[in-house]
């Protein structure tokens, strides 16, 4: 999918919401456990109830790998369901991959071609030749970890490397890589004040922002510091939406939670 | 597996060789493509021919993910085959995972419990709470990326952060994490001179060393700077062994290549 198509969808839905499909069998309503594929049944119900409110879905691959082959089947069914029924929706494989060149190419093929995702999250530690293989796919997007929303972000990401924080060095360096137009960045909402500085380096790149809600980040602050003319933001919410209720009404409850965020986004988009 | 058991195996086999099972269907002998599961057939033949020469096997998960569900089945069959027939062998899931705490725990369960690997490679960018969930598993090992063997290692890993190179900061910081005894480290052989400095920080930790052979590293140099009383090294070779021949004699050729390395290792172990 092109970035332009994503922006069009944002304006059409008045939403820049991404829903994280981090499905844990211990947390989904117990009646679903009787289904042949409880994970897919859960995802399908969530997608059916929320697709008009969200512009992106982001399954974190860890939750699927944890269930072995059955988990991978559920992931494949989920991405196929999205691509077949909602091709306008932007899909993110939250996989945090990255390896030496030849191997990153295998990951890129797996997620972009075999699975059919629009984008994948990638870790920057191994540098240029671990990321460029992902960037070479047309109309596919590589979402580079810059500043994550967890406590461990303070271990290395915000420490100074050659006069600037590591996460800034990662962003600046990544701009020199081949096909860097296909880059987006993960920037946690728990550190919204950093967004102003990030916007000086990458004024228009899309940012995938986790950490609003459950992890304490504020939607208003993120938009204040990070929103641009092209919007340039995808705000992710996972648990706050998909586990809004653990009973039979889980899908309706998820839609209600998603709608609250979408309405806040609509107000922000209208008043900017 | 305990580290002691790994060391015992090293002395018994006079080898600290790890064989990388990075199976690419475009590179394996064409007669195997007729098999029901060509990847597993290839791995089984390689393992049968080399298990007395190697102390560890390391499938890189990218090569399996690239073939979707069938690839994951091949990976599961491979690790099951190793655990059933050669339980003394150390197994490494070269997965380079790492995510926020809750999610890393899912990855740890997937690779340690569901798949039954002894160890997994993990990326350090997200810090403490992305790695500690892996460290909490007893007799399982977390192999942290420190200094990789690719060109992109120069982008961030060897740059100075607060007075020392990032890779050193990663190693030093990781020593403060809970259950850090379960850590091993990836250190590329293409930079053998760095090993002396690394050994000042972690004198006895096991190092997984890729880049000998195909990527230009020297076995002698790696041992000179990195070998300790407990040996403390696993030297990985992938393509140089598994693709030694692309004809029907591939397994015999792989054993020959592995034996050349094993004999060099035997000489080094005897003369130290």
In brief:
Chains A, B: InterPro entries: OMPdecase_type-2 (IPR011995), OMPdeCOase_dom (IPR001754). Chains A, B: Keywords: Decarboxylase, Lyase, Pyrimidine biosynthesis. The first copy, chain A, has 272 residues and is an alpha/beta fold.
Run of helices and strands of chain A: HEHEHHEHEHEEEHEHEHEHH
Please tally the β strands of chain A and state the result: 10
Strand content of chain A is 15-25%
Q: Strand order across the biggest sheet of chain A?
A: 1-2-3-4-5-8-9-10
Family (chains A, B): Belongs to the OMP decarboxylase family. Type 2 subfamily.
EC number (chains A, B): 4.1.1.23
Pfam families (chains A, B): OMPdecase (PF00215)
Protein name (chains A, B): Orotidine 5'-phosphate decarboxylase
Written description of the protein model:
The structure is a homodimer of 272-residue chains. Chain A is α/β, with parallel strands linked by helices. Chain A has one domain: TIM Barrel (Alpha-Beta Barrel), CATH 3.20.20.70. Chain A has helices at residues 3-13, 38-50, 61-65, 68-85, 101-114, 128-135, 166-174, 194-201, 219-226, 239-242, 250-270, and strands spanning 17-20, 56-58, 90-97, 119-122, 141-147, 160-161, 164-165, 183-187, 207-209, 233-237. In chain A, the strands form two sheets. Chain A has an eight-stranded parallel beta barrel, surrounded by five helices. In chain A, strands 6-7 form a two-stranded antiparallel ribbon. In chain A, strand 9 (207-209), helix 9 (219-226) and strand 10 form a beta-alpha-beta unit. The model of chain A has no long low-confidence stretch (mean pLDDT 95). Chains A and B meet through helix 3, helix 4, strand 3, helix 5 and helix 6 of A and helix 3, helix 4, strand 3, helix 5 and helix 6 of B. Chains A, B: Pathway: Pyrimidine metabolism; UMP biosynthesis via de novo pathway; UMP from orotate: step 2/2.
